[in-house]
Amino acid sequence: VRPSSKFFTPCLTAAHRVSFFRCLGLSHYAFRYFEVSGKHVLSASVFDRSKIEVRLTPSTSEEWLKERNICHLPVITLHHPSGELAHLATQSQRSIWEEVFPPPFSTVIFGLGKSDLRQVEIYPDPAKLPLLALAKALSSLEERMKEAEVGFLWVRNGAVRFPLLFHFVRRKRVRLGSSSFLFDVGEKFDRGEISKENLVEIFGTHALLVCVDISPLRERDPIDAVGDALRGATFLGTDILNPSLLGSTSLPLWTP
Amino acid sequence: MNNEKTLMAGEPARFAYHFSDEAPSLWSENLAQAYRRGVTVVETRIAWGAHERTRGVRDFSKAPRLRLERFLNLVHETGLALDVTLGFFPSAETFPEWCWELSDKTLLAQTIWEECPSGQSLTSIPSLNDATLKAAYTQFIDEAASLLSLYRYPEGPVRTVKFDLELYENTLSFCDTPDFALSLTQRYETIDQLNVVYGTTFRNFDSLRSKQAIRVLNDKRPWLAAYDYKWGRAEWLARIRREWMARESMIAFETRPILNPLPESRSAWDGPWALAMDQTLVEEHKGTPSLFAPSGLVIGSAVASLRLAEYLRARAQDQAVGFFWLGEKISLPQVPWLVVVSSKYLPRATFLRLKERVEAGGKIFFPFGLPQYDEGLNSFDWSPSSARKLVKTKEQLFFRVKETQGEVWWPSVPPQANDALWEGLEQTLPLLKREESTP
User: Fold this and answer.
1) Coil/strand/helix, residue A117
2) Which among B196, B164, B122 is positioned nearest to B377, based on CA atoms?
3) If you placed Cys at A119, which of A46, A79, B29, B429 could pair as Cys (CB 3.0 to 4.6 Å)?
């Protein structure tokens, strides 16, 4: 079925966000996550290999500080203003990646450059570098996709596949989503049945297909693997003018 | 996406299909597909923001995705019944663009607005206290309801029209409104009575409308302050709902039985034990807890309750143990042992429901001690005629009270709220089971 409306992709659901995250293999990134406001620890969890363990300890900011310093995993902490919860404008424009990735990953990695009452701390310092590189690669990919009206991101990781569609008008994101129709398009691409010409035919507009294959990099650190896979992505639809652009766009990342 | 998931899930009787979110060219095919898969009732919602892009100009017929009457006809032609929701729900199109410019806003947990766990940050939405918003929305539902009334069952597909104030049921700014002082006046009548209960020295009810005052109430009597806040908020919403419903006879009308009556939903939990938690000190939305933070203030007791709730829910899910919120509208699971987690207090209605359960032969274990009911601060004696019995196991001392049929247990020393709490509970329950048959 060829969609006849520009709104051919239903909005991205929470389940889609998690599926996309898992398909990229990022659910294997292990870290401890805290939210702290003044002397209170609002939440504490361990994210490890698709499993999220909710913890009751530590319960105070002093205990949190001690635990942070001896923890063997990267520790990501979201600081709210002391004594209050951070307040975010509902209508504030969020980046594509904030909407695509599930929280807390989205908040921590892609929402840090904004003026916000919250502060994100990544500890220890070396743990920031791969996250920063990943954020840059994603930002570059977004820039590349904006050149077309439709950006179709097709992720392959072993037997798992996930499609995402980005709809831009004059380089501004209008909508993003996923649907079963896009799986068909991706599978056709895998079989070599998609060309530049019928990509336009399928989407009814200038479109760019980006295929990201994580499969060969599965044994590596998940953050590095995704960054490298993005830099080595296959593009169909428009020739890449300068592949080195990938990874060179600076993305503001809050540094404590 | 909801629709796809439902369609692929098997043979559902209900099908959530929000027509303005879908491609109009696919409406007919999607509905037919749903019908073929055994769906009898379609649920849809009418988003104000989608239909009123320009202030005062409502579109139900021009833009293809907003053609309500076409959608209603398609549903009817397909042979499906339709349940419509009007109101305020988490969706980017709930409010028209111009509403975001209104100065009166209300705080809400971001996790409720986004419908996914996104931490404890807050966001704000247009306030229901704003007269401009209320007047504009009234005009909108007037028009929507008049259209829907033409398609009522059996001439049309519309079976029910529900009015949903979902977004405002968890608002955290209620204490900033005049209605908050009004609700406290209703509950305490005089400021002196409030001061006695809270141990405070406020001069009048209006002086309670400040962050500092809210902080004081919550520091002095956290459970009671949360209970008062939520009681007032529920009353305020009920008043608004009544106002709109009185105007729109169409809303929430009762209709005849639908084509195929739906089977009773299965709410019973058939495991050996289940957890139930008092939700007074947490905000609960569709089963997911968030921080109770009136006016955005972080309150220690609310943080502790939220973290306990999140921990217990996660562990219960891992171990396939039922987790339930204690509330007036929620039925208690039918299990041999119910573990009830609460602070020192419980709402009277909840307390009485638990008592009924015990009198009917249920067994309840309160790991954090026997709670008192309501705001009166009176300890409730489960059964004045039978004394509390101290039961000594190898590991711990417990109190036990036998009611007509059932039993109530609580430990002499409550457990520490740390990461070993779950394991402690799992070890305790077999001990209680072993002792329960002891005279």
Assistant:
1) coil
2) B196
3) A79
Which chain A residues have a beta carbon less than 8 Å from that of B297? Answer: 83-84
Residues B251-269 have pLDDT tens digits of 554 433 333 333 333 444 5
pLDDT at A255 over 60: no
pTM of this structure: 0.85
pLDDT band, residue A5 (cuts 50/70/90): very low
How many other C-beta atoms can be found within 10 angstroms of the C-beta atom of residue B371? 21
Is the CB of residue A60 less than 8 Å from the CB of residue A39? yes
Q: Which residue has the higher pLDDT, B69 or B400?
A: B69
Q: Residue B39 CA to chain centroid, in angstroms?
A: 27
pLDDT at B286: 85
A4 and B417: CB-CB below 8 Å?
Answer: no
Amino acid code (one letter) for B345: Y
Nearest-angstrom CA–CA distance, B180 and B37: 49
Category of B424 on φ-ψ map: left (φ > 0), alpha (ψ -120 to 50) or beta: alpha
End-to-end CA distance of chain A: 50
Bridge-based pairing state of the strands B372-373 and B345-346: parallel
Report how many Cβ contacts below 8 Å link chain A to chain B.
131
B297 to A83: CB separation less than 8 angstroms, yes or no: yes
Of A15, A53, A107, the CB nearest to B118: A107
State yes or no: pLDDT of A114 exceeds 70.
no
Cβ–Cβ contact B95 with A under 8 A: no
Chain A nearest CA to B66, separation (Å): 13
The verdict on a CB contact (< 8 Å) between A89 and B124 is yes
Residues 6+ apart with CB under 8 A from B135: none
CB A31 within 8 A of CB A47: yes
Q: 């921590």: which residue's tokens?
A: A108
φ, ψ of residue B73 to 5 degrees: the values are -65, -40
- Residues of chain B above pLDDT 70, percent: 86
Backbone angles phi, psi at A149, to 5 degrees: -80, -30
